[in-house]
Amino acid sequence: MNEVLMSAHKITKRFGGLAAVNDVSVDLWRGRIHAVIGPNGAGKSTLTNLLAADLPLTSGQVTLLGQDITGWTPEKISRQGLGRSYQKTNIFLPFTVWENVRLAAQSRDTQQPWNPLRWFHSTVSNATKATKAINATTSIAAQARAERAIALAGLDNRRTAIAGTISHGEQRQLEIAMTLATEPQVLLLDEPLAGMGVAEAERMVELLLKLKPTHAMLLVEHDMDAVFTLADRLTVMVNGQVIASGTPLEVRANAQVQAAYLGEEAH
Ligand SMILES: Nc1ncnc2c1ncn2[C@@H]1O[C@H](COP(=O)(O)OP(=O)(O)O)[C@@H](O)[C@H]1O
Ligand SMILES: [Mg+2]
Predict the structure, then answer these.
(1) What is the mean pLDDT of residues 233-255?
(2) How far is the CA of 137 from the centre of ligand 2 (A)?
């Protein structure tokens, strides 16, 4: 059943005098991809950070699965069903694909945010020991979640590869697998196609289409081919403000958007 899984109501984030996100509202529906586009500095990453509570709101309200989650911690929101990926990759390069996904799966149980460096420094002093520690501490349920996430992300054949040695595209797939490992219902993806070649981008688009029916998705993306292939809804931000929102066709026809953004190369 299609329904709104997550909403932002008039959310604002000020950094000093700068309103990086200014009075933005958005509804994320299960089965729909809501793309957010706009030039660099428009506030897209800040918007995802606000939804995931990685940054506190200045004002406004966020709901997830019918609950007001304003002021909740990122860990609690993650356990409630939100998964996010970052514009800069968040994987732990010395570990295998499988270990990365397993740790992410486990993070849901341990009430710890996924922070590999902190975990690594506090737990172990080298990667071999780390692998043993991961094997020893991952619950059966977390392992099952990791298995499903790896399969869903199409990384079954790369599970024993060291994350630092796989291609950039595969690293982004790994990021998605790690996000899926907590079994989120809502996905916030910040530029998942960044830096990808054509073939890698096509694979990622296929993966996102596969995830679409069962998830609500916010997709920040500069690749306009991907955006117009994937998005059911499109929000255009400039200087923290929403200048247009609607179906991709409606937004494409909007003269203000063409002047501000679509007419130029997206950077
Ligand atoms: N932690 C921060 N402190 C101060 N200013 C910030 C911070 N994060 C982002 N900004 C500013 O907020 C604006 C929006 O940034 P961002 O959300 O990263 O834009 P986008 O993702 O659309 O490129 C930019 O002007 C940026 O410099
Ligand atoms: Mg950004």
Answers:
(1) 93
(2) 35
219 CA distance to ligand 2 middle (Å): 11
Specify the amino acid at residue 14.
R
Q: What's the CATH architecture for 54-252?
A: 3-Layer(aba) Sandwich (3.40)
Beta carbons of 171 and 91 less than 8 angstroms apart: yes
Q: Which atom of ligand 1 is nearest to the CA of 40?
A: 23
What residues are paired with 51 via a beta bridge?
none
pLDDT at residue 228 in the model: 94
Share of the chain above pLDDT 90, in %: 73
Within 8 A by CB and 6+ apart from 53, the residues are 62, 69, 71, 72, 73, 74, 77
Bridge-based pairing state of the strands 233-238 and 33-37:
parallel
SS3 12: strand
Domain borders along the chain are 54-252
Average pLDDT, the chain: 88
pLDDT of 121 above 60: no
Distance between start and end Cα atoms, the chain:
36
Q: How confident is residue 180, by pLDDT bands cut at 50, 70 and 90?
A: very high
43 C-beta closer than 6 A to ligand 1: yes
Rounding to the nearest 10 degrees, give the CA dihedral for residues 161, 207, 187, 109.
Answer: -40
